[in-house]
């Protein structure tokens, strides 16, 4: 079946100085050539690839623009960003026979390289430069090559090659937790009794005032979140409602939500007031969330005497003591083994599932199953 010719708006909708439209398909030059009149009179098809042609779009009132043949089957058109100009361009191309698709549909249907298209989509949602760099490596082929290499080893099917394939799969599997957070933030949940300084700590970590800080215990009634980046990793920090037994039904619901947020979080931080005596409630919180990071806040105030506290990080949101240390501790919990540049990284659910399935199959000696799971990615 002959491929259709698509026209795709590459720039985001809304006002912009320039809009870029891609015509992609076997009849791209023909369709664009129907409307494009170059300033020098030369037909678009006569321009060399990548040469920029200035001219007018001969449709409706007409419009000055530039066109460029990027390959035998791709023409890029750059016109004024106003909606009327773009609308006329798309309308004329649709009349010529182009099918208008969104850039996400267009990418998803690229026949050349599935993982590369997926990486291009993910790149558009990368929240930080660091995650974008990792996704760019995958766009350039890091993950695809790793999968092909594992397939090649499995196809040899001798014991050594299969063992090497398993090692490579395990390495990929170990990157899944980070791969999940190249487009979605990690969730860090803070819990602690009211007034210990949770909101203030979030403000200190994020670098601006975000949640409600109040002298009144119980002021933080619901989950308040703030988005930030720690060492280039996207992180959402949730300030849970103060965890304490309460008669107030509104607060009671908040406490339940707080517990759920803590369960869902990628890292938990329990905040205590270093100037207040260590209490049974404090100990109960530590016992309930044994893997949480303990933070003893308000160390600028005289330290309370009393029972020994669990090991943790001492902070003050007034002097900012310990805030960097807290950020570092969170980073090493969230991303303990950051990948070296160029490393292969799975980055979407279908990758995580296929890697897990292939690993399972190999552990049962099911070579064809492993091959099928991995081939489904390509
Ligand atoms: P939350 O209820 O746990 O979110 O606590 P807040 O962040 O609202 O802080 C409660 C009170 O403690 C506010 O008056 C803050 O200014 C104060 N506070 C927070 N952190 C510190 C700190 O490190 N040192 C001192 N001295 N006061 C703090």
How would you briefly describe this protein structure?
With 378 residues, this protein is α/β, with parallel strands linked by helices. The chain is built from 14 helices and 13 strands.
Describe the structure.
- This protein is of the alpha/beta class and 378 residues long.
- It has 3 domains: 6-108, Gyrase A, domain 2; 114-180 and 340-375, tRNA modification GTPase MnmE domain 2 (Four Helix Bundle (Hemerythrin (Met), subunit A)); 186-334, 3-Layer(aba) Sandwich (Rossmann fold).
- It has 14 helices and 13 strands.
- The protein has helices at residues 28-35, 83-96, 103-108, 114-123, 129-139, 142-156, 159-174, 176-179, 198-206, 249-264, 280-288, 323-334, 349-363, 367-375; strands spanning 6-9, 18-24, 36-38, 52-57, 63-71, 74-80, 99-101, 186-191, 224-230, 233-239, 267-273, 293-297, 313-314.
- The longest helix is centred in the middle third of the chain and has 16 residues, at 159-174.
- It starts with 5 loop residues before the first strand and ends with a helix.
- Residues 211-221 have low confidence and may be disordered.
- The structure holds guanosine-5'-diphosphate (GDP).
- The site of guanosine-5'-diphosphate (GDP) has 21 residues, from helix 9.
